[in-house]
Each structure stands twice: as structure tokens, then as C-alpha cells.
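Q: What would this chain look like folded?
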Amino acid sequence: MLEYKISAKSQKGGKASSLSNKSTIYFDASAGRDNELPNPAELLFTALAACILKNVERYSELLHYPYRSAKVTVQGERNDSPPAMKRIDYILEIETDVDERKLNNWHKNIVKFGTISNTLANACELHGEIKYITN
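A: My prediction, written as C-alpha cells:
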């Protein structure tokens, strides 16, 4: 079993940061909304995107599906009361020469074996699609 640990802190006014490994991530923990720093929902979406992109790389190697680049766009819908993510949608775009059957198999593995994607799918509606990146 893998274990993860981070530490986070904030200053009065809401400027916050987390430390994991040797990297610091700054985020908005204010009572309002900061226009520069990501808020917790955006960090959640970033974690999903990172999970998906990590698995693009992992399954590219395992399945021998070469790619040149990958891009994920994530958006979601939040309930007000109780506050929770109701639905999260993503589009994964991959620049690759694999055929559509392989592309769909790749996507199936990316989602099925993603720690963050599985966690979110158990908590809310998670919908995604995969597309080719075209130049």
C-alpha cells in the first residue's frame, strides 16, 4: 500500500501553500475568491488532470502506444447545499497515430487504473472523452 503526505499552511487573508516532496504549490484559502491563485476546486481538477496525464504516460509505455503530446480540460458543476461536486467532465486530447480502437482501450485503462479518477468517480458523476489532437 502506498501512503502520501503533504503539509499545508495559510496566512490571514487566505494565501496558502502546500509542500509535497520538494515542491510548493500556492493556492487560495480566502473566504472570497482570488483571481490569481487556484481555489480548492481547481486544485481538485488539477489532481484529476495530473492523474490522467500520468496514466497517459504509463499506458503509453505498457501498451506500446506512442504519443507526441496530451492535453486535459476539466470542468465541473458544484452543488450549493450541501457544498459538493455534483459532476466533473473532462476531455483528454492525445496527439498520436494509434487507431481508434487502441485510443479507446488506452482511455479505458487510464480511467480504470487512476487513483484520483477512481476516487472521484465514487464521489460524484465523472464523465470523460478522448479525442485526437489535430494540427
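The chain has a mean pLDDT of 95.
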